[in-house]
Specification:
Layout: E1 2-5, H1 11-20, E2 25-29, E3 35-40, H2 49-53, E4 58-62, H3 69-72, E5 79-81, E6 84-86, E7 93-97, H4 104-116, E8 121-123, H5 141-154, E9 157-161, H6 168-174, E10 177-180, H7 188-195, E11 200-204, H8 211-223, E12 228-233, H9 249-258, E13 263-265, H10 267-271, H11 274-286, E14 291-295, H12 313-332, H13 344-347
Parallel strand pairs: 7-8, 7-14, 8-9, 9-10, 10-11, 11-12, 12-13, 13-14
Antiparallel strand pairs: 1-3, 1-4, 2-3, 5-6
Helix pairs in contact: 4-5, 4-12, 7-8, 11-12
The structure holds phosphoenolpyruvate and manganese (II) ion.
Manganese (II) ion is lined by residues 99, 269, 295, 305-306.
Length: 352
């Protein structure tokens, strides 16, 4: 149930009155931080709608049930990962590093280049999903330690993929942001195990997943304890092999501008080509992305995975300038007003 407030309502008084009726509330705010509505948690007492409507400051009560109430409660809010703000009008955040952590030396060089470009988090795969069973699948647990040390030395946070329930504790011990890869977006057992680690999660969109399926996967994470979820658009399957995937920029605009959710973009896996990464990064930031997850490598010619899409250190520096320009605009502009969470029925398709 959603209780919306009048423009002049004193949200603290409304909240106290609702709590007095036996209702458990979650405040929803617009981008300026003003509380515009309360989501009533399902564990609340049963109270007649008329009594809620009669509370001073209540404009309306909507009884439509959202399929993802916990995610809706994140709308318009700023969230923090490793002390870095995402969404809610915060400056866009650059996260970068190699596809795979290949050696201690490689990840230290990558971390230095990432920090020089203004990145705040270092990415790098210790556990890699590979189409071929004979391809390099990462160094596993030792690489988690190298990644953490390199990030600490450069003053960065860590984002890395967790592929199996068995590795959740090890990855959660090393990373600030746990990545669920595209291939695992609907691996519900993994989502529940990762949620139970009570850490921030970056949820990549399945390469053939609808937006509804993606949002419900995020709800699985939040319902099982994830402290926050960053949605990551990384391209969906298209019909044209000229690019590796098809960046769904409309989904980025929809989620960031209409739903008010923190969505980051991975232009590397979306295109598969380093010569397109800067242009797609521009597009993503213009569409409202809260950040970018970009592959870069000290020497992409030697990369053991995804070399063709990895930025060189020079190109990464150029990307850093682009992100800084968008960040300057975000900090100069007053926060945009944000509509309340979209009508749940408009995004619910009755999936099982
Ligand atoms: C990755 O980030 O290295 C990766 C494997 O991404 P995705 O799950 O989007 O393919
Ligand atoms: Mn990769």
């Amino acid at each position: 149930m959603l209780v919306t407030l009048t423009a002049s309502a004193d949200s603290n008084r409304v909240q106290t009155a609702l709590q007095g009726l036996g209702l458990w509330t979650t405040a929803l705010s617009d981008r300026s931080g003003r509380t515009t509505a309360f989501w009533i948690q399902p564990c609340s007492s049963a109270v007649p709608v008329e009594r809620i409507r009669a509370v001073d400051g209540v404009a309306d009560v909507s009884c439509q049930r959202s399929p993802h109430p916990l995610l809706d409660a994140c709308a318009g809010r700023r969230t923090a990962v490793a002390g870095v703000s995402f969404g809610g009008g915060a400056a866009p955040v650059l996260m970068t590093g190699p596809c795979s952590v290949e050696s201690e030396e490689q990840i230290h060089l990558a971390a230095r280049a990432a920090a020089d470009a203004g990145a705040r988090l270092l990415r790098g795969g210790a556990f890699k999903p590979r189409t071929s069973p004979y391809a390099f699948a990462g160094h596993g647990r030792p690489a988690l330690g190298w990644l953490r040390e390199a990030a600490d030395a450069a003053g960065l946070g860590v984002v890395t993929e967790v592929m199996s329930e068995r590795e959740v504790d090890a990855v959660a011990g090393a990373a600030d942001l746990l990545q669920i890869g595209s291939r695992n977006m609907q691996n519900f057992a993994l989502l529940h195990a990762v949620g139970s680690a009570h850490k921030p999660v970056l949820l990549k969109r399945g390469m053939a997943a609808t937006i509804d399926e993606w949002l419900l996967a995020a709800e699985h994470l939040l319902a099982s304890g994830a402290t926050t979820v960053l949605l990551c658009e990384r391209g969906i399957v298209g019909f044209d092999p000229s690019t590796r995937n098809l960046l769904d920029i409309g989904a980025v605009a929809l989620l960031s501008q209409v739903h008010g959710l923190p969505v980051v973009v991975d232009p590397s896996h979306a295109s598969g080509r380093r010569d397109l990464v800067l242009a797609l990064s521009h597009a993503a930031l213009a569409a409202g992305a809260a950040g970018l997850l970009v592959e870069s490598h000290p020497d992409p010619r030697c990369a053991r995975s995804d070399g063709p899409q990895a930025l060189t250190p020079d190109a990464l520096a150029k990307l850093g300038d682009i992100v800084a320009r968008f960040a300057a605009v975000a900090t100069a502009d007053p926060p945009r007003m944000h509509p309340p969470p979209s009508a749940p029925e408009a995004i619910h398709t009755g999936l099982s």
